[in-house]
Write a structure and sequence with these properties.
single chain; about 300 residues; alpha+beta; Arc Repressor Mutant, subunit A; SH3 type barrels; 4 domains; five-stranded antiparallel beta sheet; four-stranded antiparallel beta sheet; 10 helices
């Protein structure tokens, strides 16, 4: 996370602290934000200069409450559509820490209507297709996804699908039932090479399923138990790129790290292992070991 993103994150933490039911002293604020008291004072002063109603009472700070029914930050902070758009634009312009950006965009999506957020997070070529997918979901319509790139050796082809749910609030993936394969799949909006065309009513709604995502952000109806031994480098990289993995990692007595989890596809974890082949050891995960061995053998041909 770069300096600008770190500051943004601390400001949001400060919002949360000041919006609590009890006022909080500067020492506690500094500790919670992991900054000096001087920096904590500077953050608070910046909020006050920007017009936020910060109240100081006997050395403790809080946001001015709107009344006894005050329950959350949205009672005292309001973003206009222009301000929401600006925040989305700033997030989209950052070149790193995609997970951090997506979390903020998700919060905006939960606060503002679809049109406001999608107009900000999607580029012009994608926007029209997302609108059509949204209409199809709401009206229970099938679509033709023209010239979709499946990646690898699959090439480009038209897909006849029934879209039923966006996978995330930044509209990068959509869950669809593939009428040809008879399976529920995620389609990446950025891989649509042509238009999305409405194509009649749903016929397979009973088969529509949204699968959970694993720590490597893959989904599916398969389950693979994965156990990896990580050195410091691979441990740092996995926790930075895949923050959800932290809860599945423990430190071993010999100073390495052990990841034990379940994945729904081997591609995500396999790509991670292949990229750090000298820093990761596969433990008792035969399907993953075969996946990695096959990829290494293919590279050597």
């Amino acid at each position: 996370m770069n300096i600008e993103q770190s500051s943004i994150c601390k400001i949001f933490k400060l919002f949360k602290l000041l919006s609590g039911q009890n006022a909080i002293d500067i020492k506690t604020i500094a500790t919670r934000l992991d900054v000096s008291e001087r920096t904590a004072y500077r953050y608070i002063s910046s909020l006050m200069e920007e017009g936020f109603a910060v109240v100081k009472d006997r050395g403790r700070y809080t946001f001015a409450k709107s009344g006894k029914n005050y329950t959350n930050l949205s009672d005292i902070i309001h973003f206009s559509e222009e301000e929401a758009t600006l925040v989305c634009d700033v997030m989209a312009s950052l070149n790193s820490d995609v997970d951090f950006q997506n979390k903020l965009i998700s919060k905006l999506a939960a606060t503002f209507d679809f049109e406001t957020v999608i107009g900000s997070v999607a580029s012009s070529p994608l926007r029209e297709n997302i609108y059509v997918l949204k209409e199809a979901i709401e009206r229970h319509l099938a679509v033709i996804i023209e010239n979709y790139s499946s990646g690898g050796k699959g090439g480009n082809s038209d897909r006849y699908v029934e879209p039923y749910k966006f996978d995330d609030e930044h509209f990068s993936k959509v869950w669809c039932y593939d009428t040809k394969d008879g399976k529920c799949k995620q389609f990446k909006v950025s891989r649509i090479g042509g238009k999305v065309v409405l194509n009649g009513k749903w016929q397979f709604s009973d088969a529509h399923v949204v699968y959970d995502r694993d720590v490597f952000r893959t989904s599916g109806d398969e389950r693979y138990n994965v156990e990896l031994e990580l050195d410091n480098l691979s441990h740092n990289l996995i926790t930075e790129e895949y923050p959800e993995a932290k809860k599945h990692i423990r430190k071993t007595k010999k100073g390495t790290w052990l990841l034990k989890t379940t994945v729904y596809q081997l591609f995500g974890v396999g790509r991670f292992v292949l990229g750090l082949i000298d820093h990761v050891r596969i433990i008792d995960s035969p399907e993953l070991q075969k996946f990695v061995d096959d990829r290494i053998a293919a590279r050597m041909q």
